[in-house]
Amino acid sequence: RERVFKQLYEVGGGGEALEALRLEVISGASHTNHYFLMAVTTTRCFVYSATGSLDALFYIQGMQGPLVELPGQPRTSELHFHSSERHKHGTTNFAWLAGPGVYHGLLHLSA
To answer: Domain-by-domain residue ranges, the chain?
Structure first.
């Protein structure tokens, strides 16, 4: 049987290819999921967060621009995540390596 996929959203208007994508699904109270998505191109970082469904994730924040936009025209970028036991439950570090340098932070991923 052939699977059919549905396009939910075009990140950043489709002008640049996605370099990395990270989706976290956090189970919440009363069986409701919270979705967190970070997507990066070579120069832009987009963050989406919503409760309910993936459709809601893009519907709520679909018209917003990137969280961060860096100068230059680098050829690639990388996105990395790290969690450790010493961090509180639901937190994770991230680092985005792009042409101008490294953008990093701590994310609080809880429902």
So the answer is: 11-108
